[in-house]
């Protein structure tokens, strides 16, 4: 007798209390909505993975991180700032444990600049504050960033991906100088931080 009286309500529910059948119906709708969203998200991940749309944020050039210093584009003699035939500038940098090589590069103001980077060991970050230059540097891949600098300025370039115990000391410099001054610099002077 006590069971039947406790399950039936003596009158209307007080304000703010929702009947159990409404709660059950609402919970079932939310579970179905969540299941549909989960299926859609999994389908997007699977389709993009199969079609090759998932890749590092670079132009998907592959290099061998164990031999970058021995042959190819990132040998030591090619690192630093190079002027291309069209007047643009290409900067090649290798990130390795707690250092960018070269430690400083000089580029001209007002010219198109292309940064090409790779890593010799672990994932590093490449960031020039207050510019559009911000990328991950992943071993085995070449990261490429295009930019230009409107005016001469000095930039500190931190590694912004944790790469080990010495991560906090991994900094380099980008020195932007007027085009006239840049034209008078030798290739060796473009990869040092000496005052020009």
Mean pLDDT: 85
Helical segment count:
3
CATH class of the largest domain: Mainly Beta
Q: Structural class of the secondary structure composition? A: alpha+beta
Show the helix and strand layout:
Blueprint: H1 2-7, H2 20-50, E1 61-62, E2 80-83, E3 89-96, E4 99-101, E5 104-108, E6 112-119, E7 124-127, E8 134-137, E9 141-148, E10 153-158, E11 171-177, H3 179-183
Parallel strand pairs: 3-6, 5-11
Antiparallel strand pairs: 1-9, 2-3, 3-4, 6-9, 7-8, 10-11
Can you give a write-up of this model?
Strands 1, 2, 3, 4, 6 and 9 form a 6-stranded mixed β-sheet that branches. Strands 5-11-10 form a 3-stranded mixed β-sheet. The chain has a two-stranded antiparallel ribbon with strand order 7-8. The chain contains 3 helices and 11 strands, in the order ααβββββββββββα. β3 and β4 form a beta hairpin. With 196 residues, the chain is α+β, with helices and mostly antiparallel strands. The radius of gyration is 29 Å and the shape is elongated. It is 21% helix and 30% strand. The protein folds into 2 domains: 49 residues; 131 residues, Sandwich (Immunoglobulin-like).
List keywords for this structure.
single chain, 196 residues, alpha+beta, Immunoglobulin-like, 2 domains, six-stranded mixed sheet, three-stranded mixed sheet, 11 strands, 30% strand
Brief account:
With about 200 residues, this protein is of the alpha+beta class. It folds into two domains: about 50 residues; about 130 residues, Sandwich (Immunoglobulin-like).
């Amino acid at each position: 007798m006590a069971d039947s009286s406790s399950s039936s309500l003596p009158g209307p529910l007080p304000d703010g209390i929702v009947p159990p059948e409404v709660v059950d119906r609402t919970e079932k709708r939310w579970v179905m909505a969540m299941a549909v969203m989960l299926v859609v998200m999994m389908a997007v991940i699977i389709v993009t993975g199969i079609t090759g749309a998932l890749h590092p944020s670079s132009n998907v050039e592959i290099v061998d991180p164990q031999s970058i210093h021995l042959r190819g584009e990132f040998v030591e003699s090619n690192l630093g700032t190079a002027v291309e035939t069209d007047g643009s500038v290409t900067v090649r940098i290798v990130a390795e444990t707690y250092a960018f090589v070269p430690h400083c590069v000089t580029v001209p103001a007002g010219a198109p600049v292309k940064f090409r980077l790779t890593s010799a060991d672990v994932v590093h970050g490449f960031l020039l504050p207050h510019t559009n230059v911000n990328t991950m540097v992943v071993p085995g891949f070449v990261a490429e960033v295009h930019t230009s600098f409107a005016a001469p300025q000095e930039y500190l370039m931190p590694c912004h991906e944790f790469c080990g115990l010495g991560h906090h000391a991994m900094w380099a410099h980008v020195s932007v100088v007027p085009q006239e001054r840049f034209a008078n610099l030798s290739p060796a002077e473009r990869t040092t931080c000496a005052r020009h």
